[in-house]
Amino acid sequence: MNELFYNKDITEKDEEFYLNNDESKHLIKSLRKKVGDILIFTNGKGFKFDTRLEKFNGRISKFSILNNRKIKSYENLHIGISLLKSTARFENFLEKVTEIGVKEITPIICHRTIKKNINYNRCTRILTSAIKQSFKFKLPTLNKLQNLKDFIEQSDEKTKLIATCHNYKKIILKNAFSSKTKNLLLIGPEGDFTKEEIEKAINNEFKIVSLGSSRLRAETAGILACSAYSLIK
After folding, report:
1. Residue 112 and residue 197 share a domain
2. Which of 97, 124, 166, 181 might form a disulfide with 102, Cβ 3.0–4.6 angstroms?
3. How far is CA 219 from CA 80, 106, 113, 211, in A?
4. Backbone angles phi and psi of 214, in degrees to 5
5. Model confidence over 122-156: pLDDT tens digits?
6. How far is CA 71 from CA 52, 92, 128, in A?
7. Which structural domain, as residue segments, surrounds residue 13?
């Protein structure tokens, strides 16, 4: 089975590149790669690089790039989701939606959001691991933490959706997505959005969607949404 490796610094103009000590040791000692092996890399920007391991001197490994090509991505879903009280649950959300397919993620602070900070380095490592696991070549964009009010006002997607358990007239999620335009879906915190937040979204052209009859955890709602979108993209 093919494996995918990641190096954010490779460009389509490069003919060779090097990996540092830790990355080299992982390839040689843990994965038992040998000089002459062909490995597939991505830079997370949509490019696939076919490479050959040319040299390993115990600390640094050298690769030649045999060819590269841009892999078209059909991900056009942006999820704005409240930070969750449980870091593990939020990280599970990041991993699973990346594996399924998402273009952009914005962590948001709502009225009922409890946690107010995020470890971006750790989250980026989770996203990177997930694209390698799922053999994807585009790393999702993880935006800076934003206040919900500001995020709603600044959103420019053509299709703007918000999920809530409150009693509103709702569109079934799978019927609300567009396969031709950018999609944005808002997922609230534990305890849901407040009615004032929902009205703010409605006044900014968001449509309210239903995720089914079950009451879902926030991270489950996000995973379900990505799964639904993957069927229409």
Report:
1. yes
2. 97
3. 11, 13, 14, 12
4. -85, 145
5. 999 999 999 999 999 999 999 999 999 999 999 99
6. 20, 26, 17
7. 4-70
